[in-house]
Amino acid sequence: MKAVKVGICGLGTVGSGTFNVLTGNAQEITRRAGREIIIQQVGSRRDNPAADTSNTDVTRDIFDVATNPEIDIVVELIGGYDVAKKLVLLAIENGKHVVTANKALIAEHGTEIFAAAEAKGVSVMYEAGIAGGIPIVKALREGLAGNKINWLAGIINGTGNFILTEMRDKGRDFADVLKEAQELGYAEADPTFDVEGIDAAHKLTILSSIAYGIPLQFENCFCEGIGGITPEDVQYAEELGYRIKHLGVSSRTARGIDLRVHPTLIPEKRSIAKIDGVLNAIMVNGDAVGDTLFSGPGAGAGPTASAVVADIIDLARLIDAPASSRVHHLGYKQVDDTKVLPIEDIETAYYLRIPALDKTGVLANIATILSERGINIEALIQKEQAEGEEIVQVILLTHIIQEKIMNDAISAIQALEGTQGDVTRIRVEYLV
Amino acid sequence: MKAVKVGICGLGTVGSGTFNVLTGNAQEITRRAGREIIIQQVGSRRDNPAADTSNTDVTRDIFDVATNPEIDIVVELIGGYDVAKKLVLLAIENGKHVVTANKALIAEHGTEIFAAAEAKGVSVMYEAGIAGGIPIVKALREGLAGNKINWLAGIINGTGNFILTEMRDKGRDFADVLKEAQELGYAEADPTFDVEGIDAAHKLTILSSIAYGIPLQFENCFCEGIGGITPEDVQYAEELGYRIKHLGVSSRTARGIDLRVHPTLIPEKRSIAKIDGVLNAIMVNGDAVGDTLFSGPGAGAGPTASAVVADIIDLARLIDAPASSRVHHLGYKQVDDTKVLPIEDIETAYYLRIPALDKTGVLANIATILSERGINIEALIQKEQAEGEEIVQVILLTHIIQEKIMNDAISAIQALEGTQGDVTRIRVEYLV
User: Which CATH class is domain B347-427?
Assistant: First the structure.
């Protein structure tokens, strides 16, 4: 059967990883795909000693790749927004299929890109953008396609999970671990995307669209980072039988789609609570299947290349098929318009850490504020103050309540004479 | 687009589950598949109150379904060998695609069935046969297709895992828990398939073929049940930092394919060691991706139906595509002839429990036997005998050694004057 010809744009970590997997596993890949997959051209501003391209046509202009008439599939691994978008759209315009690892591009410009691809009868594949080597896009769009997906929850940023794991295992504080993560190369010099949850929100946005068949709407994804988590919170959570993870959580409720990324207490017995270090994991609950868990390495050259190459093999197998034989970009022929809930309208349980003065009546006042708003207390720890300190920490777990009611309760608690400073609030998910 | 018409054969637990998912989620499924999927006919000897077939064409002769000219996809959910095989081959002969949950049929007659299907240009899908709702066949054949798979290990029989979990959690013995499992409906009246590992060996046979591209060869899969595991072994394993699981283990070594099902000690820190109860889980190690873990419910109406329906949707999407666009039955266009290693040639670490008389020199003799054969001891526990007993239990963990050398060592230990009765041997896998 005719070989399929690939052009790789970008020769960084993932680009060189993809080059090496395609060449190193060429024999195995041909056996699987039923035809040869050839790297026809590489577009990269510079060589990378990690990939031996001496026998490959290398161009310094990535746009050459997008217009190369020999090429069937353009692999976009340059990252970023503007140039990547231009490249992908040019490839589509030239009738190429596209494979990308760029979740930011898909989450923020996917609607436009997919529409262009559909008009041209080509596909844009993006498995590598989410949770690295874990084939979660395929699981949601195909493997669990018979289900109405009820909810999903994912540890989908390895840097954040590494930081929280270190904080827990060694009692270290956030800034300290972040610095180490940067030295180890797990975190970028500018760690905002990772620790603020933006990267996770990109991924969650995509996962939710393919889970529920809703439009990509990154702008409606609530996002809270892990910078405010203290070693004490990690410790208190532990005492209560929970782990703190930076979780992307999404569910389909009668009132709308719940879509949010934030630090989350998870009961320690749940499998996903035990996913440590730079690993990623996604739980998916479907109405037929129940709970499933997918875990593995969420980043790095090999795992990301694994996903890129799987997408290439899929496209190669389907290259002679009508467009309708390929999976719809978001897993659904048509998305529906179910709205994303504003964060004030979500319902969840809460962990509260309230700095209180050690005075009679403070606890009673807090309990009254909660009770008046119909907020039930599930568990409570009151810690003695350290010597010489006036403040005691009151730690509460509440039952499930609407966020706006909790906001109001927190304002009232902070206004009490007996409390001092801000209440720390971390959402709790039971994942059942 | 033209609707795809399905005929369901068998209306037991999985058949009625599939009927209910296809009808209950019809709207969602149409949105995903891009066309309607209609249940054209059901073939079943009797009705099942779990599925309301009052508006469906029901025949008492399942072979009617296989020859029904209206039907595109025949779903075989009757189980067993002879009739199921006849049905599947008749459906293929009539140009139908087939979806089945029958791992025994595929593991033992897959080669013949796939050849017939390929000759007719149709596909036989079997995701539901392995690990219920976990889309592991799809993960191996497609999601991880860029990898050379190095090894995989799975808890792929829920009954066995339930029994071992209960034995560990409550210190109960095998026979006692088996009886409860039968009462709960987790285990069949004849539990041989589950507890002897035959069911797991069927699944492992299939997983290994699609992981490495080797022919189905159930007859070469080594198989050992869990009936010989005692609560004491579970306890000793725990003391050493391990859990005992009934594991299917398979790897691609330079000397051949390692393919075996047996009770296995796994370090308790490995995620798969924590998969408890009736859950299933599969670890897959690929050269690019590293370690991945897939877990979820391995049986039951809903989870199995989830996989059946996913296969139906895949076929529906590809119904107008050339045969080459569908995934090869074993994930490879051609399988190769890598041999399965005889069990004597495999290499693994071992747990040994040696009943010894409490006499000077016995331990030294055991150590000498091991040392003479190049077997290193990794850990050792010697338990005092219970009051009034003469026998002490010597528990050993060894380094990795070839099975035939271990067999020889065990014979020599059993021949010692200072030991009494059989040595218990459980293989140990580190899964790294």
Answer: alpha beta
